[in-house]
Amino acid sequence: MGQVLIRNLDDEVIAKLKIKAELAGKSFEQSLRDLLAAAAPLTPEEKVAISRRLREGQPPNLPEVTKADIREGLE
Predict the structure, then answer these.
(1) What is the pLDDT along the chain (75 residues), one digit of tens a residue?
(2) CA distances, 13 to each of 9, 17, 20, 24, 48 (Å)
(3) Contact (Cβ atoms closer than 8 angstroms) between residue 21 and residue 33
(4) Model's pTM, two decimal places?
(5) What is the DSSP secondary structure assignment for residue 27, as one 8-state letter?
(6) 25: left (phi over 0), alpha (psi -120 to 50) or beta
(7) How far apart are the first and last CA of the chain?
């Protein structure tokens, strides 16, 4: 499993998160893992953005071929 180090967190934020963890009967570390896991799933909008980003890196579609082009190629 990976590790993450988050710097420059406000002490007040940390204190509030510790209280929330205690009220939930969890360790501070487990509470943070749960918060991050809940925030991790991608929204539909994010999935579309990823798809668009991937498509931008692909070569453009082939030019459209008409029936006349096909007939010409058969002659």
Answers:
(1) 899 999 999 999 999 999 999 999 999 999 999 999 999 999 999 999 999 998 888 877 777 888 888 888 777
(2) 7, 6, 11, 17, 32
(3) no
(4) 0.65
(5) -
(6) left
(7) 63
